[in-house]
Amino acid sequence: MVALNAGITQELKIDLATSSIRELNAELHAPTARRYEVHNPRGAEAIAVGLRDEIDVEIHGPAGYYCAGMNMHADIVVHGNVGTGVAENMMSGSVRVRGDASQSAGATAHGGLLVIEGSASMRCGISMKGVDIVVGGNVGPMSAFMAQAGRLVVCGDAGEGLGDSIYEARLYVRGSVASLGSDCVEKQMRDEHVAELTELLAAAGMDHDVSQFRRFGSARRLYHFAAHNSAAY
Amino acid sequence: MTDPTQAGLRESATFDRATIAGIQRAAETGVYDIRGWGAKRAVPHFDDLLLLGASMSRYPLEGYRERCDTDVVLGDRHARNPLHLDIPVTIAGMSFGALSAQAKEALGRGATEVGTSTTTGDGGMTPEERGQSKNLVYQYLPSRYGMNPDDLRSADAIEIVLGQGAKPGGGGMLLGQKISDRVAGMRTLPAGIDQRSACRHPDWTGPDDLTIKILELREITDWQKPIYIKVGATRTYYDVKLAVAAGADVVVVDGMQGGTAATQEVFIEHVGIPTLAAIPQAVQALAELGLHRKVQLIVSGGIRTGADVAKAMALGADAVAIGTAALIALGDNHPRYADEYAKIGSAPGYYDDYQDGRDPAGITTQDPELSARLDPVEGGRRVANYLRVLTLEAQTLARACGKAHLRNLEPEDLVALTIEAAAMARVPLAGTSWIPGQGF
């Protein structure tokens, strides 16, 4: 670890070519600085997981599975692509990916903001529980599967089975939707939805005409077991 | 008619009364039957094994004078802070939602009183449970309901649930009548809906991914917490090998008699293998890896008595877990509720409708009036008493076999009463040296 301007801006630089993931996370769990730069991540797994302090972490390069997993309060930026489960189960704070994300981005996340400037693979926002996710490009199949709460904004296209078995999450898609999953339907864009979408795009730093987006959500037809729904299960 | 058989009537073995009632119910409702409890069919079980007490060829311990220790360390393979329990009988995972908050608190109180652990369930950790449980295992389930990194860090161990014995390959289920505002809030779901949990984890598939998931959990908790992997008993030999390869500190194997709060009857009765058949497979897998007793094995599914505890440990388990039996200790199926069971179409000894939230004993319900019937302090006392009896019984049997510690019980101390049990447990048929499947 190398202190950058120590004592002035409280910045630390951690080089994963010479430091281990354990050393990195141990430092981030009991931070001695306010801002961190992580270099040479080289696709390593579990980078910057379980953070709980209001710190800034910039990761310069590609990160592997579960980068920024279970984040609370921290603001994390990845200057590169990320592997499976970025920001999984995030509670608060923010995670920004300047590249693309693999499967299950933002899975089960309860809060905070996840921005993926590129595209996200399948199961983006699976079982999301309150997080806001904004994807600059496309999302893969089965995104927002069993999504319980929160908002997913897709500025590109959505793959097959969008929002399958969705609960109360709200989905906004600017491009095409290959198909909708069980119990997911297109819904009217009312004023409050235009307002929240405008807010989400602004928070993500993305400039799009909100009138180009469509809204999707739950038809709430599968909320109770019924014999006539057997084909939907 | 008093007894139809006295009149010469003959009941079908294929279409018995329960089967007929099932067909009639299906025709009436158009929906499969959902219930709680575990498999009710007869399967080879610990009752089909006997312990060989000492005589001339073995030396017993004095029943009331010589020590027979019972403690167990769980999770010392990788974790900095393994659990050290006073007794090898733990409380299995059961959710707040499936159980009332009072029941969860009572289980915590009882377990803590005798120095063992209790376990959360599909629905997160309640303050009542954390507050009353000295050793609390936090389940990490596919649904991730209420999953919170602060709770993860406050837990004493983490149990990654791949499945349970009542429904290997199936997800959780909680019907709308039990989704109160509090339960709904913890699960981030609308109140009153029928909740279906996923059966697969959302962010990993397969043992290679699980290895990375375990790394993440260890990193988040700074390598302090033991990590268990729980599987429903099916292809146990392979599942245990893969769990160990993925990095588990402890493997939990739940046989088909293991309970559930709500699952399809057809699933409970027709999927999975008996606990008795699973243990030797698990032990074989661990032994072949050179990790038996190093990666601990917890066995659950039909543990009722100290004899079951002793026999499971003799087969190679390091500890056992109880669920249904703990609920019975709390008051489930008690005769004092006979009239109320009758009103909901059941009876003491038969009640298994944990899914519908009308439990007269106040255990498997979220109804405020029913839940209030269970005093957590008194419930905790009953659970503690029961756990003590299980331990005393197991010690009694172990001493008779000449063992100064429960873990010293071994397969050599066992024989089987039936060929089926001998084959599954891999111990000789009583009075013979024959273990079916291991030569002639």
Rg value of chain A: 18 Å
First-residue to last-residue Cα separation of chain A: 52 Å
Unreliable stretches of chain B: none
Give me the secondary-structure category of chain A: mainly beta
Beta-strand fraction estimate of chain B: 5-15%
Which overall shape of chain B is indicated by the principal axes computed on the Cα atoms?
globular
What amount of the residues of chain A lies in strands?
15-25%
* Strand neighbour order, sheet with most strands of chain B: 5-15-14-12-11-8-7-6
Protein name (chain A): Protein glxC
InterPro entries (chain A): Glu_synth_asu_C_sf (IPR036485), Glu_synth_lsu_3 (IPR012061)
GO molecular function (chain A): oxidoreductase activity
Keywords (chain B): Oxidoreductase
Descriptive key words:
heterodimer; A: 233 residues; mainly beta; Pectate Lyase C-like; twelve-stranded mixed β-sheet; 10% helix; B: 440 residues; alpha/beta; TIM Barrel; eight-stranded parallel β-sheet; two-stranded antiparallel sheet
